[in-house]
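Whether sequence alone determines local backbone shape is best considered at the level of individual chains. For completeness, the protein is quoted in full, as a sequence line and a line of structure tokens:
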Amino acid sequence: MNHFPHPRTAAALALAALSVLGLAACEGGTGAKTDPASTTADAAVPQAGGPTGRGKPPKLLWMGDSVAEAEAPALGAALRASGGEFTSVAATASGNVTGSDAAETWKWLPEKLAAEKPQVLGYQITAFDWGTPDEQRKGYERLVKAVQDVRGKLVIVSTPPIRHNEIQKPHAAELAKAKDVAQEVARRHADTVTFVDSSELWGTDPAAEKAMRSKDGIHNCQQAAATFAQWFGGRLGKQYGFTLAPAEKWATGKWTGDASYGMAGCS
């Protein structure tokens, strides 16, 4: 397991970490630079119709649980540096549209979508998206409709590999099916929904170095957040017609001291 920088020193070390990890090559996830003409990289990313970005990122609303919350600071910095607008509603033990306490999400989500009117909603499948496949499908279909109602597009990202805690362990088999159900829903709505498999970045073993989990085996620290921002930002760039800003413009700064990294034990 890597040792990740403490928030106080992260800003000084972030660029070095990016260099070591070769993040400039991660934009395409295959070592290729972001290039709309690259058929090899594009083949790995389903293309949904929608905003082209007009050379800048579409307005993105980011949603998920605390795992997505720890990815948000770097993703927001990267997209804003690229000229985009970014808002995160990812939060601890929240943000799920199916499974545990999903009813709470639906109390505020339609109003938030109406207020923000995002061009794209990025939804990372949470560690609470349990239930039967039919229940999961119903939740994701409802999310599709909610985004369509504000004329936005939906990008669903699979959960990174995590070590399930005592609450999640009894639902591990159900959570494992969420990815397949989400892919099915994305295929059904290919004109407005895209599914992105994060195992391309993280792998499937939470204990592996590639997974870049923090000490708790669930969340990520600053280095992994920057890695995710470069990878996912590159994916969005291919889909919506913009080039992510170079890491040198966003990989350091206030975001590296976000409180989520302290809670994840990043030291």
